[in-house]
Amino acid sequence: MELRQEIHGNCATRFARVREAFAELFADPSEVGGAVAIQLDGRFVVDLWAGHADAARSRPWERDTLVNVFSTTKGMTALCAHRLVDRGSLDLDAPAARYWPEFARGGKAALPVRQLLNHSAGLPAIRRPLPPSALFEWEALTDALAEQEPFWEPGTRHGYHALTFGWLVGELVRRVSGRSVGRFLQEEIAGPLEADVYIGTAPSLDHRVAEIIPAPPPKLGEVDPLLEILKNPTSVAARAFLNPLLPPDAINTTQWRRAEIPAGNGHASARGLAQVYGAVSAPERSATKVLHPEGVKRSGTEERSGSDLILLDQFVRYGPGFMLGTPDEPLGPNAGAFGHSGAGGSLAFADPTAKLGFAYVMNQMQSGRYLIGPRANALVKATYDCL
Q1: What is the DSSP letter of 189?
Q2: Does residue 299 have an active-site annotation?
Q3: Rounded to an integer, what distance in angstroms lies between the CA atom of residue 61 and that of residue 54?
Q4: Mean pLDDT score of the chain, rounded to an integer?
Q5: Which of 147, 200, 138 is nearest to 170 (CA)?
Q6: Exposed, middle or buried by CB within 10 Å (0-12, 13-18, 19+), for 110?
Q7: pLDDT tier for residue 231 given thresholds of 50, 70 and 90
Q8: CATH superfamily ID and name for 7-385
Q9: Catalytic, out of 30, 58, 71, 177
Q10: Quick one: how far is CA 300 from the chain centroid?
């Protein structure tokens, strides 16, 4: 008889189905470690974890284990921008060059901030070839984006700005606030909430960081979207993921953890992400108000939908900085829910109607033609079955 991983943590009786769904993930012997957390109306109703923090299965996953959540980071970066909008310091409809004068080059003088957030700016990739070391050089990346022309007329189409989103939005946060996006997140949002969410981790956190385990090769007949994109290495989509090149072995290095790459190297616990989105969804229950009511509504409002030019024409829905649910992969049944998924399977989102903050994180990556993935989708479905 195959033994399942022991599930640790707390789960309200009402949410027993979420615990069951989480335990079912670990019936697969290839699953290594992960956590799911849910805040409802300002309090934790689910805070579960299981498995191991390393491929050797020698370190148990703990309540406070941190893990790279890849593009789930984009939601945190977007919250930083929206906090500045709420404050009146950043105008989504103003030209980005108002705050970042060098950005006016390449015919972008009138390009509005909003289009940098909703993936319609035409800047999903960097034209000028950059060495892999540039990935860790903030100004090299922002200078390259400031000087180039868009790949399409801004606002007319949309394509996932997989990496460039972080430097574009992060540079606006830096120009407006005078602080890097990682520092802003800590001082304005995560720190006051005492939430374990970081863009750039300190050495003192290294012992808590889980090892990321790459997705196994696709099985016969399975499609790996990234491999399909990379078949044409000169395409805009391939450049979006290859320039600058992220070496496969970089993800688990201290250089990666220390850097601020606001589209993809956030490190967080499920509990921390659920705290942030829980505070967004139930502000009356939180001592720290992340967004004004107008900001919450704005964040969950659809601005773009349809086939994505970068993601092999997958159907997507984007708000200003956030992914919204799709018919195939909903973020629950309520309009206005918003958040972001990450490569390999992580997901975190806010549902203001239900006053709910949800997060799932893991270290064994999976690949496939989806935006969220079957593990997180199963947990989301179980969550709403309990409401």
Answers
A1: I
A2: no
A3: 9
A4: 95
A5: 138
A6: exposed
A7: confident
A8: DD-peptidase/beta-lactamase superfamily (3.40.710.10)
A9: 71
A10: 15
